[in-house]
Amino acid sequence: MIKKLLNFNILKFIVPVFLAFLVGSVILIISNINPIEAFYNLFLGAFGDKRAILSTLYYASPLILTGTATAIAFKSNLYFMGVEGALYVGAFCSTLVGIYFQSLPSFIHIPFALLVGMGSGALFAFIPGVLKGILDINEMVTSIMMNYVAILGTTYLVSFPFKSKEAGFAATRMIQESAVIPRIFQNSMLHYGFFVSLIFAFLLYWVFKKTTFGYDIESMGKNVNFSESSGMQTSKKAIYIITFSGALGGLAGALEILGTYRRFIASFSTGLGWDGLTISLLSSHNPLGVIFSSIFFGGLYSGGAKMEIMADVPRTIISVIQGLIIFFLAVDFTVKRFKKIKSR
After folding, report:
1. Cα 201 to Cα 287: distance, rounded to the nearest angstrom
2. Which of 17, 81, 251, 311 is most buried when burial is the number of CB atoms within 10 A of its CB?
3. Rounded CA gap, 200 and 247, in Å?
4. Which residues, other chains included, contact 277 with Cβ-Cβ below 8 Å and sequence gap of 6+?
């Protein structure tokens, strides 16, 4: 029943995660660390009590959006890698709205800043989208290159023209209080942006299942040549899909600024866009699966601190586990690709 609802291969999630923890356990044993104690504390730090769960959901919030942003592109066989760049552009532009638009009530200021974040992320992604749709230039190459433009460009802007005089680091002024997304609980970092992330994940699931646009995405993902020969304007659809992917990335960045940092800080992202890529692959590009995978990754981040304190395990083991998950996903993809080529 659950598998039918989620419509993604549960084993594709379980196997790479299990193998990653297995190899991680070997590394810990070699380092004279008890893996059972380490992962027990990791679990307690992620789901052990109310505070741990709220922390996990806080870390999962932006990952849900970056995961769905990647899912919509990859599901249509478009390898758009610019979610990280869109996140930075959306974050910076929403920050400017939060700072310079004054005397606005919160019910106008917050949605306006979020829409600007989405729009700027969409505009960022529109460039590789047009290059792919009209000139057939590889979207993977152009989007990766544009990530550097976005990250380094915003770093320059907050280091010089928009740098706060009060800050001792590269950051803007604080946004207006009317642009701040309130936290759900006073003693937690989790804010109402979490529900925005969930809404868009469920919305995208509905688009995939109930709309002609979702059918077009599914069709392009299975066979783009057949889709084109059947009359679908795949070039135009590619532009729409990549642009929408960028919009979700921009929204993720806007929510991070308005709900967490309340100012733009250079290099604020811990690789949220790239984590979204891994999450999308783990979830077979299914938006509901993205929610569960994001919570799993959020648990890794949240539980890593407790594991480091209680079991004296360096938090870098979390990065090792994430890298191993990516490795085993890549092995799975390569094997399937080889079988597909061999069967022709």
Report:
1. 5
2. 251
3. 11
4. 66, 70, 74, 81, 83
pTM for the model stands at: 0.93
- The confidence score (pLDDT) of residue 1 equals 43
**Average pLDDT value for residue range 15-31:** 94
The letter for the amino acid at 341 is I
CA separation for the pair 300, 43 (Å, rounded): 8
Do the beta carbons of residue 277 and residue 63 sit within 8 Å? Answer: no
**Is 105 exposed, middle or buried, given 0-12, 13-18 or 19+ CB atoms closer than 10 A?**
exposed
- Residues pairing with 265 in the sheet: 171
Q: Taking a C-beta distance cutoff of 8 angstroms, is the pair 169, 266 a contact?
A: yes
Q: Sign of dihedral through CA atoms 89, 266, 84, 118? A: negative
Chain segment 44-97, per-residue pLDDT in tens: 999 999 999 999 999 999 999 999 999 999 999 999 999 999 999 999 999 999
Sign of CA dihedral 225, 231, 235, 239: negative
Contact 181, 192 (CB under 8 A): yes
Residue type, 334: T
Report the distance separating Cα 84 and Cα 268, nearest Å: 11
